[in-house]
Structure formats: C-alpha cells, structure tokens
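Hello Y.,

Per our agreement to keep a running log of every chain we model this quarter, I'm adding this entry. I've kept the format consistent with earlier entries: sequence first, then predicted structure.
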Amino acid sequence: MRRVVKEISILVKNFIVNLIDPKINFYAASLSWSTLFFLVPFLVIVLSITINTPIFNDYYEKIYQFITSNLLPAKSILIIEWIDKFVDNASKMGNIGFIYISIAAILFFKDFDYIVNDIYSTKQRNGL
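Predicted structure for the entry above:
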C-alpha cells in the first residue's frame, strides 16, 4: 500500500512539474503550427489522388449527402462550394506543390520527433 501511495505521489509531483514547464507553451504552439502547415497540403495530395479514381465519385456523393443532411441548408451549400473549389485546385497541383508538401512533411516529422524526444527525455535519433 505504501509503495502505491509513493508511486502516485511521484506521478502527481512529476505531472505538476511538467505542467508548469516553461517550454510547454512553445511545444504546443510549435506542434499546432506544424500540424496545420502539414495537414492542409496533405489533404490536397489525398484529394488529388482520389479525384482521379472512378470510385471517388461514389464517395463524393455520400459526403455530399452527409453534409447536406447534417448541416443547416444555407451552410451546407456554402461548404459544398468550398469543397468543390478545394478539389478543383487540388487537381491542378504540379511538381512545385508536390515538392512543397514533401518538405512540409519532413519538417513536421522532424519537429514532432524533437519535441517528443525532449518531453520524454530520450536521445535524438540519427537520420533525417
């Protein structure tokens, strides 16, 4: 019983120390920015790949019906227009866009790896 109480007290102490860590806000901001920096271009790649397959038309209809049935009618039309524009622009992406997305992915994973290693006090891995 004493061992369990001691373990819990150590856990609570470490949690409080890590909660007031001055780097935590930096890490949160960095991961948020990196995620947004990577997520939008990643969606462009996924949409540009799926838009060129015939099976996508069936899924697009299901997504369209889901949005129109679950949102207010005025807002659903606007969201469908945004999705259509996004899909049209995704299909126009060229080599420069692909290079940008590749660089964004590498930077995202490097940043994520650094922050997770620092939070858990582990060694940095060698490599990319």
